[in-house]
Specification:
Blueprint (H helix, E strand, L loop, with lengths): L1 E3 L12 H4 L26 H10 L7 H4 L4 E3 L3 E5 L2 E5 L5 H9 L8 E3 L3 E5 L4 E4 L2 H10 L13 E3 L3 E6 L5 E7 L2 H9 L7 E3 L3 E5 L4 E4 L2 H11 L21 H9 L1 E10 L2 E2 L8 E4 L4 E5 L5 E10 L5 E6 L8 E12 L2 E8 L2 E10 L9 H8 L3 E6 L8 E5 L4 E6 L5 E10 L5 E6 L9 E9 L2 E6 L2 E8 L7 H8 L3 E7 L9 E4 L4 E6 L2 E11 L4 E6 L12 E9 L2 E6 L2 E8 L8 H8 L3 E7 L9 E4 L4 E6 L2 E11 L4 E6 L11 E9 L2 E5 L5 E7 L2
Parallel strand pairs: 1-10
Antiparallel strand pairs: 2-6, 3-4, 3-5, 6-7, 8-12, 9-10, 9-11, 12-13, 14-15, 14-16, 14-22, 16-17, 17-18, 18-19, 19-20, 20-21, 21-22, 23-30, 24-25, 25-26, 26-27, 27-28, 28-29, 29-30, 31-32, 31-38, 32-33, 33-34, 34-35, 35-36, 36-37, 37-38, 39-46, 40-41, 41-42, 42-43, 43-44, 44-45, 45-46
Helix pairs in contact: 2-6, 2-7
Length: 697
Amino acid sequence: MKRSINRGLSKLLFLPLIILMTFTSCQDEVIDITDPNERETLVANSTLANLMQNTSLRDGSFDNIIDNANCISINLPVTIIVNGIEITIDSEEDLAVIEAIFDQFSDDTDEIEIVFPITIILNDYTEVTINNLEELEQFIEECTGENEDDDDIECIDFQYPISISVFNAAFEVIETVTINSDEELYDFIEELDGGLLAGINFPVTMVKADGTTIVVNNNDELQAAIEAAEDACDEDDDNDYDDDDNNDIPVDDLNILCSNCTWTVDKLEIGDQNLEDQYEGYVFTFIPDGPVKVEDPNGTIYEGTWGLTENDNGIPALSINIPDLPDFNNELWLLHEIQDENGEIKVDFRSGIDRLRFEQLECDDNNPAVCPEEVVDSYLAECFWRAGFNGDNNFAEYEFYFNANQELVVQHSINDQEIVGTWMTSTNDGGATVITIELGEPLGDFNGEWTVIECDEGRVKIVMNDLYIVFERECEQDQCTQEQVDSYLVECVWNAVNYNGINDFNDWNLEFAADGTFTITNVNGTITAQWASSTTDDGVMIEFSGIDGTSDLQDMNGSWLVIECAEGRLKIVRGDQFIIIERNCETNTTCSETDVDSYLAECIWNVVSYNGSNDLIAFDMDFNTDGTLTITENGQTIDAMWSTSQTNDGVVVEFSNVAGANIQAISGAWLVTECAEDRLKMFNDPQDYIVIERNCN
């Protein structure tokens, strides 16, 4: 007989050997599936058993952003207070919400308060109820610190299910057990101490950290595979929640960044050794088209080659070959993160457990990110500019006019408030361009000497100590006639991308008809209302009426003045309120179920956005016409189901039996709100959405 193991499995399997041997008299219950001479037993406390158990330990580092402990994890859901905001974490994917709150401001103190009681899970899968912070800290103290050696092996995993045979002293099989998870494997090996005789039914597939697989055919090969992979990757057992940010830069842009500046070694870890101190003062110059030169503090020059490519997942990869500096040589330094803190840029590469991080030293004057004084002057003199202050959009409605006589005029685009001050550029001793600003309240925070760290004709970034301002240029739009506004609105679909400074209504599709009706559509359904335009002394007015009172957009009812007008973008105001709507001619909300079925059946699809994140983009989804869905990632395949149906609200796509980690987030029914041959946007409640795109390469 065959069954899956669980914690409730009959203790018969784990009785001491002397009891198991009593089964030899019941030959009708024995299944001898392998020549006993060819079997290899799995022995308690052997090297192999310990390696297997360490591979199956629960890794607690995934939620370190909450508990800072690698050997425990918090059982979800859990309610926490992040920087004063109470949220509930229902899944691992929700941890990104914490990071987003932390990332919102760079000059505040990030704090998490856990709402007790909670349940924690130890790395042996034991669950413990925790009633307060003091109890939790006792368990945290028992864990090893950041990136210290621990027992769990994270660089290789078993591909389940695997089969293990239980047999008697004559090596006759009395039970075949199917193991479906790390927890089940851990429990099984834990019970080997009870005298259990067992053997693995090979072959067994192992999955490495990079997604590649290896097939092993006996105990020796399995032990060798685990030992080889034990320290072959960065287990990421640290508490740096944002150490995976900004690695989606295009290779061409990374090439420009590397070759326009000189760099020093900020971190170099090879194996278990930290080597950066050996290379203090070494300056790297990456020359376009291949050469790299390194100068040490004594003036000695080392030469080699470098290059940038992409791996199969689209991540930039750096290749370095400097014969006299072999510590740096690697054909596949994968980009892990680019840090940009107030102009101090660090570029972090990883290769397994090895790590190389460069810190930017000096940039060439011709670098597009650093502009000479006269270039800054010419850019700022054109059009007007809007400012983001330390990532805050509180000043979004102020228009900055940098006049040629060093007069700085700032106008509020809604209430016509005007503030007049001064500006001037100069060059400091280090050769950097400095902008000096003097303004009255409420813009006093802009006053001071700011260093230009990024500059192009549409964007200028300046810093002062730990503060920064990003200016973005806008040029006055031509005033439109009523006829132009009418013709623009009836073309394609429009979205309210900014409603009084927020984009909460970006997922509403607005469709304007020439007969004066328009529809508002999102996951909650469709609202039919009315619109009309007119010409006044102030300009073109648009009036909305009949927007249902149950709609979040009911405040749109009334008359609005068009103050900015282009074929694809309108800005309308009413008193101190404003709306920016933008046109999307690729959006189609009227696909039939047949359309959706035919689109999905072609090529491979990827989830390019899950609530704004691309964490699921690596999963390839193949929609089969028989209703099965084949999902592949790094050579691993998940079999699921899909179906479509036509409802009053539109076409619904439903995913079921999605058993894989992370990608299981797509499970459930999703309403199609945007539809094109190669792109679908779908909601399963007002907040959760996915965007999938077709890949026919």
